[in-house]
Amino acid sequence: MGHPHGDRDWVVVGSTPEQMGAAGYLPVGRDFPVFLHPRTREEYALARIERKTAPGYHGFSFRADPDVTLEEDLSRRDLTINAMAMDDDGTLIDPWGGQADLRDRVLSHVGPAFVEDPVRILRLARFLARFTAFSVAPETLALCRAMVAAGEVDALVPERVWQELSRGLMEAAPSRMFLFLRECGALARLLPEVEALFGVPQRAEYHPEVDTGVHLMMVLDMAARLGTALPVRFACLTHDLGKATTPADVLPRHIGHEARSVQLLGPLAQRLRVPVDCKELAEVVAREHGNIHRSTALDAAALVRLMDRCDAWRRAERFEQTLQACECDARGRLGFEEQVYAPAPRLRAALAAAQQVSSAEVSARAIARGLKGPDIGRALHQARVEAVSAALPPDAA
Prior knowledge:
The protein is of the alpha/beta class. It contains 18 helices and ten strands.
């Protein structure tokens, strides 16, 4: 495909762990025999075949005897495009039709062993997010649905789920990962909070796409388009969770969904062992994105209070990521993709002005005036308000 690769993996046939060690290769595999070349440090794995012994990702036994062939080793791979090998002379070994599927831009499983590893559903979804011209073979989709129905996805460990989801979020079209997971039924098992957003209506004057799930997919792809970091993309994924719990009698309005989003986010992040930086940013975005969208109408005092809630003084980088997530939310709407997001530059200017205020100097002056405790904090707040007011245009301050 002309894409760069980061490493080379070698398969060794006709050898044993003892022979590899005697040749100077360094063992590194915990679950199966993998070795590092003594000079290049490239990975060399003994050819092996696997057998399913229990549900989930870890339920496998393997055999890595010298009589295991390369073709047998390739037969245990997930997709045909990942079941090709090349020898030292550049000769392609392709016993399972990977070259044809690569040409046809089809993601197809190698064989029935695909159903034995539920992580393969997540990997398949991630490949869809990366390779936007590819589709999934119908028979492979059917296998994924059967795996979900059999409960295989329920046995996945949280760390592995997060690893694959986070990698998929960083691909070119994250929406394709989540849409495939939804199509095969896995999204409802792994992220029921996200699954619940599909079919939830929104006010058409603000959201011409109407469906909240569709909007979320557009937000994710906007985050990819703008090249944002993982915490921003996770915040985009979870910013509207509360809309799934809006009472039916008030739809399509979603008053108070921000607070409900924060409530749903906590258990989700705990369940998937989400890193702290991703969780904390997501909480700020879920709670404040509506206020940030409306911030062009706020005066200096309200802007300072908003930045207080976002802890912008101590966490300026996180505040910048908050603005990025809000921009993705605003532009992830049908017909709004090219719109300039006005709140971001105004808030950046307000923060820059407020940061010019020296808290030490303000505190010293307040103490000299006899102020104590909370009164010193109020003096600092007022100094920031005055700085922001002076920096903004008169009609906006």
